[in-house]
Amino acid sequence: MPTTLLDRIGLLVTNEPSYGSPPLGEIRDAALVAGDDGRIAWVGRSADAPAADTRMDAGGRCVLPGFVDSHTHLVFAGDRAEEFAARMAGQPYEAGGIRTTVAATRAATVDQLSSTLARLLAEMRRQGTTTVEIKSGYGLTVRDEQRALALAERFTPETTYLGAHLVPDEFADRPEAYVDLVTSDMLDACAPHAAWIDVFCERGAFDADASRAVLEAGMARGLRPRVHANQLGPGPGVRLAVEMGAASADHCTYLTGEDVDALAGSDTVATLLPGVEFSTRHPYPDARRLLDAGAAVALATDCNPGSCFTSSMPFCIALAVREMGMTPAEAVWSATVGGARALRRDDVGRLAPGAGADLAVLDAPSYVHLAYRPGVPLVTDVWLRGRHFGAAPRDLTESGDQPG
Ligand SMILES: [Zn+2]
Q1: With contact defined as beta carbons under 8 Å apart, do 48 and 42 qualify?
Q2: Could you tell me the distance, in angstroms and rounded to a whole number, from the CA of residue 73 to the centre of ligand 1?
Q3: pLDDT for residue 32
Q4: What DSSP element (H or E) covers 330?
């Protein structure tokens, strides 16, 4: 791959505080070079930019690290638009809605699941997302969970085994037997295709003891823990996540002071998913409280057909700023390096030599526009490991000439 200079960046977000103004390490009138290995080779002031094989002109636009969407459920079939409409007409959201998607997913072919997944990933990339975590959890049989993960791993290394999403109907009168399955034969089939183990620790799903058993079994097979915690009400999920050393506790909508202190005193990231609260009319998590306590916060979409069918990280940033008390800079940090921390990655979410050349170009002078102009498709271009994907008709101008 040739080296590429991206020049005349109006505002570059590096997420390296030593490079520029905190917390995002901003550099004005910047440039960046992607090396032939798909990694960042150089960042700095435009005036100091080295030569490269190809030069692209950002025309004064803002460039930031590609978004890291650390929580999605993209392997599914079916549509729940009518359930959404009913909810907006006043019906409550309950975890049991997942069953509708389980039935449709089991009935779908791998080709159908694959084409939906590919379409959603392309939709995400057009909106600036360059790293995606994908969970299983709509199969809930050995065969269906295994094929979901085998499919997901074709698209991302960040695959999560979520057999413990819900107790399926056929185990309704013996949930302990389902936990046994999740921690034995199903785990055997899924572990080779998964990096992470997850559990929906919630009233109506899995209690603290069952959740601990699921996480311990996965960890014994080399999977790393993350937890769906405290989404629908207060509960033990967050403290269990911290106790188990989970990379992330996800949702964190209903937190006690002890939960906040536990997160702040740990390296478990609090991953907030405000698209869910938007789509279920639940109260938003209190990001300000977590940040003020010193917890690391990530933002992710939770893209799934039931509780939140957005693929848009810019939308989540806008919600976080408007509804959860985050500043635009905090929200951008959480959607990039925050997500990277929730996946224990240091090669994504920042733009510095050695990191992946994964970035988003905004048709805007500043990242503040992500919240200031909600719903507007500002991402014009995306680089994935140095490969350029134009996302809008107004493409970056490209030439082999060096700047004069
Ligand atoms: Zn989820």
Answers
A1: no
A2: 6
A3: 97
A4: helix 328-333
Instruction: Give the whole-angstrom CA distance, residue 186 versus residue 139.
Output: 11
Query: Domain of 24?
Result: 4-66+350-389
Q: Identify whether 397 is part of a domain.
A: no
Rounded to whole angstroms, the Cα distance separating 187 from 161 reads 8
Residue 227 Cα, ligand 1 centroid: separation in angstroms? Answer: 9
Rounded to 5 degrees, φ, ψ at 215 are: -65, -45
Å from CA of 162 to ligand 1 middle:
9
pLDDT at 60: 96
Report the separation in Å between the CA atom of 9 and the middle of ligand 1, taken as the mean of its atom positions. 36
C-alpha of residue 49 to centroid of ligand 1, in Å: 42
Q: Please write the tens of the pLDDT for every residue from 59-94.
A: 999 999 999 999 999 999 999 998 999 889 988 766
- The reported pLDDT for the residue numbered 392 is 47
Q: Is 215 helix (H, G, I), strand (E, B) or coil?
A: helix
Question: Which parts of the chain register pLDDT below 50?
Answer: 392-395, 400-404
pLDDT attached to residue 402: 41
Please count the structural domains in the chain.
2
SS3 10: strand
Q: Hey, which bits of 152-273 come out as E strands?
A: 159-164, 196-201, 224-225, 227-229, 248-251, 269-272
Separation between Cα atoms, residue 305 and residue 277, nearest integer Å: 14
Token code pair at residue 374: 């909600």
Q: What is the distance in A from the centroid of ligand 1 to the CA of 136?
A: 10
Q: Are residues 298 and 384 in the same domain?
A: no
